[in-house]
């Protein structure tokens, strides 16, 4: 009976060591967002979220074309995901492709009509095109849907209105 307990104890210790090594290896990935997202893509290539996250990483690091590529992959996997369409619209906007950005914001809103951020982004894009009436309508709708956005815009306006 004692020998069984010794072997059982050794097996448990070895199992703990193996899990600790695996956890340490995985934790090292968290130090680099790009490596983490790429690892997630390798582990779940049929899921849109890892491609979306890598696209966000590229966008936040001013690699707009790479972000757009990732958003396209994500959209092939999840074509009805409004958040991806919105992010693609933002990337197009940053590149100065206003018509493409407006198309993506509208698609995001077709999928999720109460998406305040997409209304706001569409309003900004309309404003850039000189479509002030449409811009006003969209930004007003965004503020109705997102009270935090309304507060932020109030404080960003020197007149406070």
Task: Tell me what you see in this structure.
There is one protein chain. α2 (33-43) runs antiparallel to α3 (48-60) and α5 packs parallel to α7 (116-128). The chain is mainly α and 161 residues long. It is elongated. The longest helix is centred in the first third of the chain and has 28 residues, at 2-29. It starts with a helix and ends in a 5-residue tail after the last helix. It has two domains: 1-31; 32-156, Tetratricopeptide repeat domain (Serine Threonine Protein Phosphatase 5, Tetratricopeptide repeat, Alpha Horseshoe), CATH 1.25.40. It has helices at residues 2-29, 33-43, 48-60, 64-77, 82-94, 98-111, 116-128, 132-145, 147-156. The protein is 81% helix and 0% strand.
- Percentage of residues in strands: under 5%
Q: What spatial form do the alpha-carbon principal axes imply?
A: elongated
Q: Tell me about the largest β-sheet.
A: none
- Mean of all residue-level pLDDT scores: 85
């Amino acid at each position: 009976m004692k020998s069984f307990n010794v072997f059982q104890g050794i097996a448990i210790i070895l199992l703990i060591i193996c899990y600790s090594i695996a956890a340490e290896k995985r934790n090292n990935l968290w130090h680099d967002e790009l490596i983490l997202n790429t690892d997630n893509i390798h582990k779940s290539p049929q899921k849109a979220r890892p491609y979306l996250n890598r696209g966000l990483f590229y966008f936040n690091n001013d690699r707009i074309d790479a972000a757009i590529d990732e958003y396209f992959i994500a959209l092939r996997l999840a074509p009805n995901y409004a958040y991806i369409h919105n992010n693609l619209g933002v990337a197009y906007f940053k590149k100065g492709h206003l018509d493409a950005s407006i198309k993506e914001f509208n698609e995001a809103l077709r999928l999720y009509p109460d998406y305040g951020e997409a209304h706001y982004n569409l309003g900004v894009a309309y404003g850039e095109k000189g479509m002030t009436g449409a811009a006003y309508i969209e930004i007003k709708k965004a503020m109705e849907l997102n009270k935090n956005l309304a507060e932020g815009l109030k404080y960003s306006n020197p007149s406070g209105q």
